[in-house]
Design a protein that fits this description.
Helix content is 74%, strand content 0%. It is an all-alpha fold. Keywords: Membrane, Transmembrane, Transmembrane helix.
Amino acid sequence: MALIINKMIGTGIFSTPSLILSLSGSIGLSLVLWVIGALVTFSGLSVYLEFGLAMPVNGGEKNYLQRVYRSPRGLVESIYAFQIVLLGFSSGNSYAFGRYLLFALGKHEVSEWLNRLVGCAVITVVIWLHIRHPYHGTRVFTVLGFIKVMILLLVVMLGLLVLTGFITLEDTAPNDNFKDIWSGSMTNNGYNVSVALLQVIYSFKGWENANYVLSEIKDPHRTLKIAAPLSVAIAALFYLLVILSYYLVIPSQEIKDSGVLIAGIYFRKIFGDTFSSRVLPLFISISNLGNVLAVSFSHARINRELALENLIPFAKCFSNLNYSLLLHWAVTVIVLVVPPNGDIYQLVINLYSYPGTWINALVAGGLIYLHFNREKEHWGNTDWRSHWTVCLVFLVSNLFLALFPFVPPPQSYDSGSYPYYLFPVTGCSVLLMGALYWCAMHRLSV
């Protein structure tokens, strides 16, 4: 349960609401997207539960894709391998850790490169901890999972106190944001809606985390059937309440301008520029650390599984877990350092989330195929079955997220320092690299 909560409650809920509100244009549409994100997450959880209970071993999507897409042999696994290795980084969480740490230290306006260097430092420390003290690493993110829930509970309680009048804000009318919640909605802009929903999905990422390391869980069936749904339900409920709390306290325009630091501004609005408004963002940075620990823990093990099946270059080297951890470190640092100045956080989380939409669509389509070919595929001997409508919701939503970022936004759209098509083109290019690598290896083996 701690593994799932640690990955779900990371930078997303403390950093993306500003971007989501800016893209959706209105309070009302952003709330709708958060609800849709929760529904998509639960549908995805159901799909992964059925696969995970049928195949309770390490690997996650790799195993599910292998089960369905058996011909041509190794193609879909190679595509997945390149996506998870090259774009399964911890850059967004590491960057947000640096932003909140510097904010807690009173440095509100700092160099972009200082944020990146702090991000590089934290992923370095995390990888060192996993290599030298693996047991302590897992204990740390178990404790941090509890701290994250406490932070979310504090945010919700403060919002409730503002709503009931027990806390009075000096410079903000608490309910101003709810006078006309649909004003400015970007309902006619498919690109904005799809990217906003993609960032909502990023905030919910982590519900599938247990599927990656089922071989290392004592009772995988109990974990998947009880801990996973409970973790997602807790996180989804807290997320919706936290978003409402943000909207009660911070004016909408100030939310849009806050960037990654919306939670820090939330605490400053309530406590002023006091010791409390410094300490609480520090706890948020610590919660981001827990996410970095959880992601690096699970993704390094996926990298090792892919190497053991010879699906990535230098497979013999990366079949060693320590080298797989170093591979995750290298990719994370490269993604933090290489992009030029700009809105790197939004770029990073889009790069992280986007390719997964294609993988999720393949997984959902594969389960639909198995349902309609049960006898032929010998499928259905598990104690969990996803209804076909749930599979369809997961499939259609991921196809929407995969295709609409290619639709040019209106000319009035401000893409910032990076062109709007950068992340979908990069994501698809990485998937194509996996296919080309498979072709090269297939020719060599003939």
